[in-house]
Amino acid sequence: MRTTVLLLLLFAGVNCAQESRLQPNIVLVLADDLGSAEFSCTGSKVLQTPHIDALRKNGIMFTQAYSGAPVCAPSRCVLLTGRDSLHAQIRDNHEVRNPSAGLYGGQRALKTGTTTLASLLHAEGYATGCFGKWGLGGSVEEHASGHPLRQGFERFYGYLCQRNAHSYWPAYLDSDATREAFPDNKRSSGTTWAPERITEEALIWMEHVKAKPFFLYFPSILPHLALQAPLDAMASVPPIENDTPYDGKKGYEACERPRATYTAMVQRLDAHVGQLVNKVRSLGLLERTIFIVLSDNGATWELGGYDPVWFRGNGELRGHKGQVYEGGIRVPFIASWAGRTKAGASCALPVAHQDLLPTLCALAGVKSPPTSEGVNLAEWICGKEGPTTRAPLCWEFPQGNGAQAVRMGNWKGVRRNGKKNSAARMELYDLATDPAEANDIAAAHSDIVKAMLALLAQRTLTEFAEWEFPESTTR
């Protein structure tokens, strides 16, 4: 039944794409560790994001949007493959050994032959470029299958390794199959602030491929820790009261003005979005280009100088990055297509990263694989009413003792310690009345709990023992 519903939704938006004589360009911006309430248009009281707000004003906001996972690598895997984290290849961050001093090994790689959003679009004539943080392999030869150039992208510039991305002044960035060195950078200072250099390359690439339909994947490292911003970005932030220096003892680099620095980083992310929009406008392609802005997971906890109480990045939601409570997986999601998206529209359908593959394929007139767990949202982006119901959303996160989650209508189930204890209980929350997940009502709804456990049992096995859950939850 679930497969039938997904297939029906998958093709619902094809007519929308066929209305356009030309395949639309796609600019997909993925913020890093930015919470659902950290744009001014999503409720922030202390962060101003005018360029992103303009996209929201002229586009649609999906008000109940989720990431594919609560941390970086698996979230990116879900986004690019359309497979949820019960079925995705990559289900957690997994460091690869550094090959030598000064070089970073990267993360566990996507397999050769993986169907990705980029490979699907590229096969249909799209120019495909990735600029930012990759995190899905390719830094060392034994994980070369995961390199973006082997996963459907023609151009890559940025960080192949997430660990290297912990510095905004890295010793090098990866450029296709080579490295661009920055000898003046010293990890906590330097002359080349990586996000500026990455954005510059993205703008150059758009100019180069403007004659073709293009897919620009822009997974920015902003505003992930460490707290590091250039002087010109800091100069735009007025003094903030009680901005106590961070000493670096809880991880990452020390920071003299942590609140101001994080503010500057979010504002610079917004400025980069503005640059991308302005470049498309200058090329005369605005009405042929879809912009999507979202984040890879919820805001982080009190780590590296980030102040979760002051920024309230996850709003009133429970939890943070690394957890499957709402705060860890709820993200902002804005889509805008000039002349097509209904200005100021909102959609309350629960949506997630896996929906991007079928949605963008439909908008591009490209057939997407039936393996995706995603729902096609193309009609919503085209200013029409799209699907208002969907099959349940599921997550698993094997880090530590393991956690799993299900959203079924307004019901949200959370199962913790599932790797350690095969009989771990399922918590249950009614998000319609309890969005903060404060009142566990599992005892009163055993039928809902049973249905959710049955969904989790449909997970597929992985090839990595550390990511496995007991057989009682595997079918």
Would you kindly provide a written description of the structure presented here, covering whatever features stand out?
With 475 residues, this protein is α/β, with parallel strands linked by helices. The chain folds into two domains: 380 residues, Alkaline Phosphatase, subunit A (3-Layer(aba) Sandwich); 76 residues, Arylsulfatase, C-terminal domain (2-Layer Sandwich), CATH 3.30.1120.10. Helices cover 25% and strands 17% of the residues. It is built from 13 helices and 17 strands. The strands form three sheets. It has a ten-stranded mixed beta sheet, with helices on both faces. Strand 6 and strand 7 form a beta hairpin. It is globular.
List the helices and strands and how they pair.
Layout: H1 2-10, H2 14-18, E1 25-31, H3 50-57, E2 60-62, E3 65-66, H4 72-81, H5 117-123, E4 127-133, E5 155-159, E6 172-175, E7 178-181, H6 194-209, E8 214-219, H7 231-235, H8 258-282, E9 289-295, H9 308-311, H10 326-329, E10 330-331, E11 333-337, E12 345-347, E13 351-352, H11 356-364, H12 378-381, E14 393-397, E15 403-408, E16 411-416, E17 426-430, H13 446-456
Parallel strand pairs: 1-8, 1-9, 2-12, 3-13, 4-5, 4-8
Antiparallel strand pairs: 2-11, 3-10, 5-6, 6-7, 9-11, 14-15, 15-16, 16-17
Helix pairs in contact: 6-8
Helix content: 10-25%
**At the third CATH level, what is the topology name of the largest domain?**
Alkaline Phosphatase, subunit A
Q: Report, as a whole number of angstroms, the end-to-end distance.
A: 17 Å
- C-alpha geometry: globular
CATH class descriptor of the largest domain? Alpha Beta
Q: Give the DSSP E fraction (strand runs of 2 or more residues).
A: 15-25%
Structural class: alpha/beta
Question: Major sheet, described briefly?
Answer: 10 strands, mixed
Please give the radius of gyration in angstroms: 21 Å
